Amino acid sequence: MGNNGSTRGARKPSGKSSGSSSRKKPADGVSRRALLIGGGTVAAAGTAAVLARDELKRLWWQVPGVEKPRKPGELDYPGATWVAASEANWRRADRPDDFPVDRVIIHVTQGSFASAVKVFQDPAHQAATHYIVGQDGRVVQMIRELDVAYQAGNRAYNERAVGIEHEGFVDRPKDLTKAMYASSARLTASICARHGIPVDREHIIGHVEVPGTDHTDPGPHWDWDRYMELVRRAATAPPGPSPTPSAKA
Ligand SMILES: [Zn+2]
C-alpha cells in the first residue's frame, strides 16, 4: 500500500496480494497453520520434523510446562481496554524469553479509531499492532506484548518490537492531539519500563524508520521532540494508569 503509510492500509488493495508489508513470510503462515492443525504438542512435534531449524525455535513454547500462563482478556497495560485482534494478524510467541523486546514502533492509522480496530479484527488484513491510541487518549490493547504483531513489514523488527497505532492521518497535523500524545507517552513509558527499553530515539522509532519499509508513518507532523519529552516525564514520574497498583499513599 505504498502511500498510505500504516499497518492497516486505509484502502484495501484490490485482489492481489495486498502488499501488506508484514506478509512476506510464508514461514509464519506455515508454522501457525501447522500448530492449528496439530492442535497439540504431539502433532506439533511431528510437524516440526519437516520444518526448518528456524521454525523449531518458534515451536518450543509448545513443550508442556514452558508456556507463560495466559488469561483471556488479560492486559499488559492497565490503562488499556482489551479487544482481541484476529489471530491471522499476529504470531504466538513467548517474549521476552524467545525474542528480546527492545523497540517501540510508532504508527499513524490513516483512518478512524473504529476502523483501525475493525481491520485488526479482520483476518484478511494480515497486519496489526499491539495497541491503538485514540485522539481522545483512549487505549485498546489487541495483541499481548509477549506475542509478535505483524506491524512493521520486517520480521526481525516485528519480533523485537511493541507497536502502537495512533488514530489519524499523517497529513493532518490536527489529528495528533494533546490527549493522544500524553496517553501514548504514558503507554510507551510503561512498555519501556517493563521491558527495560532505553527511552531514546534509537529504541522508540517510527514505522518509517524500520529498515526496508515502504511506509511513511507517523509522518512529518509527528512531533518527536515533544513526544520524547512526554515519555521521559512519564518514565520518571509514572502517572495515572501505571502498572503499579500501589499508587496511593
Ligand atoms: Zn505503520
From TrEMBL:
The keyword Hydrolase applies. InterPro entries: Amidase/PGRP_sf, Amidase_domain, NAMLAA_amidase_2. Residues 90-219 form the N-acetylmuramoyl-L-alanine amidase domain. SMART domains: Ami_2. Pfam families: Amidase_2 (PF01510). Transmembrane segments: none annotated. It catalyses: Hydrolyzes the link between N-acetylmuramoyl residues and L-amino acid residues in certain cell-wall glycopeptides. GO terms for biological process: cell wall organization; peptidoglycan catabolic process; peptidoglycan turnover. One of its GO terms (molecular function) is N-acetylmuramoyl-L-alanine amidase activity. Its EC number is 3.5.1.28. Residues 1-30 are annotated as: Disordered. Keywords: Cell wall biogenesis/degradation, Hydrolase. This is N-acetylmuramoyl-L-alanine amidase. It comes from Streptomyces griseus subsp. griseus (strain JCM 4626 / CBS 651.72 / NBRC 13350 / KCC S-0626 / ISP 5235).
